[in-house]
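Section 3.1 - Work completed
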Amino acid sequence: MQGAEVEKFKVGWVGHIFYSSFSSKRNGVLILIHMNISFVLLKQTKDTESRIVHVEAIVEGMPVVLCNIYVPNMGDSLFFMRLIRS
């Protein structure tokens, strides 16, 4: 997922987009936040393989953590071990 592809998700209701994208089409994750939601970004983290986007925020006055993880579907058993360690 690259910049032009992310732009496709900027539809009428979207207020914030957080993404992690890779140079190929195989990886990439998004978090979309509705424009009518009270949202204050505190921290955003991405991994180097574009499989994870992690957002810490205040949503409607409450602290929340949002995380979107793209898990490989080819049986990468080490993926979960690396995820737990990070």
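Second construct:
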Amino acid sequence: MARDLETLSLMRIFVDESDRRDGKPLYMSLVDELQKLGCAGATVFKGIEGFGSHRELHAARAFDFSNNMPVLIEVIDTAGKIDDTASHLRETIGEGLITIERVQTSPVEIEHE
């Protein structure tokens, strides 16, 4: 059954794998915080290569055991929830990047037998 598209907001949070908060990886802390703030959900992706404002290349290559890869956290929720959450996170993330864009979503329901 087809559903109408819904306009929501997508927030992307870019940090480094080696970033820490209270001895814990920052991305884990952020996911815990997003859950406590009542966000609809969050997904963490580990990058295989990238660079940021410091222009330092982080890459996963053969014989490179770097543990400072780019990490991306994505959150989709209502515009109001994302805007409020982003404002809160800007005050708590020491370094990183937050982007927000509007997205069209179409939930898919899978029928289980």
